[in-house]
Amino acid sequence: MTKVKRIPLWARRIEVHKKNDVTIDVTCFGHYPFSLDTSVLRPAGTGSGRWMHIAFANAEAEPELLDFMANYGPVNGKMLSGELYPVAISQHGFKHVTVEQQIGKLRDAQGSIAAATRLVALLQLRKPISFNTVNPLCRRVAKSMGAENLDQELENQADYVNSEEASKKTIDLLAQTEASVARDLICQFLDRFPPKLGIVNNRIVELPGYDETGVLPIICYLLRQDFLSDVRTIGICERCGRLFAVTRRGAQFCSAECSQLKRSLDYYHAKASKAKKQRGARSESAES
């Protein structure tokens, strides 16, 4: 079965207006549910929307969230008003639609997507994950799904590890267990936004679920593709810690700037360590 590689724009034009500290109005002009044409099957590239879930996961500050919605549309709001195009000239699209986005819901969605995306990136490395790394991410995803019992169990495990009563072997075993929990949690989290099927050029295509109030189903569809991938598709920058799309094998940084800064920092530390050793050797020589 073919999967979508290129995500159509949510609308031809998007206007974002923050009404107050609680709500944001997002007005979209020229919005269609999902254009079923050959463009969705073209290889993903810059501006394709393929990595919008990573952009959303990285949008921690309010200005970044506003920029995200201006580029991609509302996330999980409530429709206020809309005007449909005549059916004869459209695919049941909206001439314009206004969605009210609650800032609290937006932040909750961003936090859960960030945690789930970071878990996928860590699992793709196929390396042991430390308990203190995986535990809070699992707790964040569990909390977003209302899994209070699991969240409490994970919190109790964290308290036990931080109490210094647990041995290193026990902590390592707990970390392995939570890596398995992470996989199960991501499955449950993504299953809340199931994909659907459509036909493009007589081919059956798996499409994101559609919701006229936001792009959250599309974000989860894209994360699902990465979770199912046999190759590494999401990285965590070794310098700044931001998530990035892995477009070449072995990529370690989100940008050329971070790569250069990390090399400069490593060079500085290596030089400082060498100078310290030389001073120590001279001191020992003088004492003898």
- Mean residue pLDDT: 87
Structural class call reads: alpha+beta
Q: How many strands, which pairing sense, and closed or not: the largest β-sheet?
A: 4 strands, antiparallel
The shape, in one word, is globular
- Domain count: the total is 1
Question: Which strand order do you get reading across the main beta sheet?
Answer: 2-3-5-4
Number of strands: 9
Could you tell me the strand content as a percent range? 15-25%
- Flag low-confidence runs: none
Question: What pattern of helices and strands is seen along the backbone?
Answer: EEEHHEEHHHHEEHEEH
Given the structure, what is the number of helices? 8
Taking the alpha carbons of the first and last residues, their distance comes to 76 Å
Q: Helical content, roughly? A: 40-55%
